[in-house]
């Protein structure tokens, strides 16, 4: 009477891979090749992710703006205090907008910063079409 173990040892030729045996040297070589290819791909992927991260962080420091505060000066203007951090040789444009109480835009101004310093602190006046209740720094982009 044959047992299950005896049947496992007599696998049909060609049915389970090249050799039909689980521990053959050809299978070991194929496994080793797959491990090497997988390791190389993982290292390349980590390198690409690191490069993208460094580029993203480095690019962010070239020209950054921050709105410190804003004050409604009159029915037709808003004073906006901006602080810009940039490389000394970099110039750029920041866009500021004034908003009415209902959220509608009532004023917009593009401000160019070309000073050859790394930090600019400036108060900008935005003219409005009606009374504004808030101001917003939309973007700051290097030129």
TrEMBL record:
Region (Disordered): 1-28
Keyword Transmembrane: yes
Compositionally biased residues, Basic and acidic residues: 1-16
Keywords, alphabetical: Membrane, Transmembrane, Transmembrane helix
Record field: transmembrane: 36-54
Name of this chain's protein: DUF4307 domain-containing protein
Organism from which the protein derives: Streptomyces triticagri
């Amino acid at each position: 009477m044959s047992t299950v173990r005896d049947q496992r040892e007599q696998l049909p030729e060609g049915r389970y891979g090249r050799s039909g045996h689980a521990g053959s040297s050809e299978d070991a070589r194929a496994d080793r090749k797959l491990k090497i290819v997988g390791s190389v791909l993982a290292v390349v992927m980590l390198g690409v992710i690191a490069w993208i991260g460094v580029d993203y962080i480095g690019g962010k420091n070239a020209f950054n703006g921050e709105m410190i505060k804003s004050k409604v000066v009159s029915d037709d203007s808003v004073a906006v205090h901006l602080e810009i951090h940039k490389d000394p040789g970099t110039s750029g444009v920041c866009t500021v907008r004034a908003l009415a109480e209902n959220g509608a835009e009532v004023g917009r101004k593009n401000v160019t910063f070309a000073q050859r310093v790394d930090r600019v602190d400036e108060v900008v006046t935005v003219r409005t079409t009606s009374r504004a209740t808030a101001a917003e720094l939309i973007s700051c982009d290097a030129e």
